[in-house]
Amino acid sequence: MPPDDGLEGLEGQAASLVRLLAVQPPTWADDGFRASVETVRAQLAPICSVETLDSSRSRESHARPGSACASRSAHDRLVHCPVEVAYAVRWLELRRKVRCPPWPEMTALEALRTVVAESR
């Protein structure tokens, strides 16, 4: 997660997440990936503003500069990095003032239709 992405980066990641929900990358079906997304989402739940979320994301990127996710493209981070997915989901929640369902439900077909429709 590059530290200079800022709010535009989170907004872009959230938009990419919505697009990726339509294609369901295979990595998202992995139980470990799903559990990691939910763990991070729980840690991000107390954050109440996109500005604070951005600050948290920036701190996260500085804390893990050599991580496998740090060197990936923005698209690949969403496909392979549960932390990035969790930040994008939390951004959607804060901007839309809604609570998204748990990640396994979001990736289920019925929930997918709802999330995509609400993000338009």
Defining traits:
120 residues, mainly alpha, globular
What does this structure look like?
It is globular and about 35 Å long. The two termini are 26 Å apart. Helix 1 crosses helix 5 and helix 2 crosses helix 5. It contains seven helices and no strands. The chain is mainly α and 120 residues long.
Q: What oligomeric state is this?
A: single chain
Number of helices: 7
Strand proportion, as a percent range, falls in under 5%
Derived from helix and strand composition plus strand pairing, the structural class reads mainly alpha
Helix content: 55-70%
> How confident is the prediction overall: mean pLDDT?
82
What form results from the Cα inertia axes?
Answer: globular
Kindly state the number of beta strands: 0
User: Radius of gyration, rounded?
Assistant: 13 Å
SSE order, as H and E?
Answer: HHHHHHH
Question: What is shown here, in short?
Answer:
By secondary structure, the protein is mostly helical.
Topology:
Layout (H helix, E strand, L loop, with lengths): L5 H16 L9 H14 L5 H14 L10 H7 L1 H15 L6 H4 L2 H10 L2
